[in-house]
Amino acid sequence: MKVLVTGHKGYIGRHVFLELSKRGYNVHGIDLKEGEDILHCLPNENFDYVFHLAACPRVGFSVENPSYTFKQNSYVTSVLLEWAKNHNVKRLIFSSSSAVVGDSDIPNSPYGLHKLISEQECRLYSKLYDLDTVCLRYFNVFSKDQEYGGSYSTVICAWVKMIEEGLPLRIDGDGTQSRDFVHVKDVVDANLFCMDFKQRFNGEFYDIGTGTSISLNEIKNMVSEKHNVNFINAPERKGDVKITKADINKLKNIGWCAKIDSKQAIYDCF
To answer: What's the rounded Cα separation, in Å, for the pair 159 and 103?
Structure first.
């Protein structure tokens, strides 16, 4: 079986690519980090499945560079969908984001809007061209090996880095904002579950999270249990939402749920 992974050198894409390789699949990757742009480097051969993880996933960056992130997120996805339609792809698994919801079912950032546009186009391709697609809305993905400063950088890896360097830990806002933190191993597991699922998705979307939300202040308390550090407050970031929490029922109803205890896994990171 042949599988294409876009963004396979990124944080989540790397984990997906490695797991597919372990399973013995014929896996091909495309990534800008290797000078391969989806707009120009899509292979002229057929694939069974496509995992589309390539994106510019930083909310703040999208606020400052809305047209560029539109190109790298929405337009690139559109080009990939058309290519998949023409190359006998059985299913495209699209990496979306909880940012599509914002604070009141409306995106707070260009990044969230771009992901929502791509979700709608995935659904259209399933309806109009019979290309099966599924959209996975990731919440805050983390793990101990998460790179600080990377595209999916979280407060967890940022604070780990600051602790290592003996620097004060920054809190944006008052620390009451909370996130649904989901371990990268669960995210990989959800992706492969959707590849193996026997029924059609027809462009449906699913939240990928734990169904619980953990505040920055709770993580601050975890850190303080282990380390003697200073915290400094900074203004809230533009485009950020106050609370994120996955609705896990839809995916649970078809047989998948997160397995890793996020609070314990976060505690173990420090």
So the answer is: 25
pLDDT at res. 60? 83
DSSP-H helix ranges across 141-261: 155-164, 184-196, 216-226, 249-252
Averaged pLDDT for residues 109-115: 94
Helix 155-164 to helix 262-269 angle, to the nearest 10 degrees?
20
DSSP state of 253: T
- d(C-alpha 211, C-alpha 219), whole Å: 17
Q: Indicate the length of the chain as a whole number.
A: 270
Q: 208-217 burial, b for 16+ CB within 10 Å, e for fewer? A: bbbbbbbebe
* Mean pLDDT, the chain, integer: 94
Q: Helix crossing, 76-86 with 110-129: angle to 10°? A: 20
The β-bridge relationship of strands 178-179 and 204-208 is: unpaired
Element (H, E) at 2: strand 2-6
Cα 246 to Cα 179, 180, 211, 264, distances in angstroms: 9, 7, 5, 18
Cα–Cα distance, 185 to 169 (Å, whole number): 26
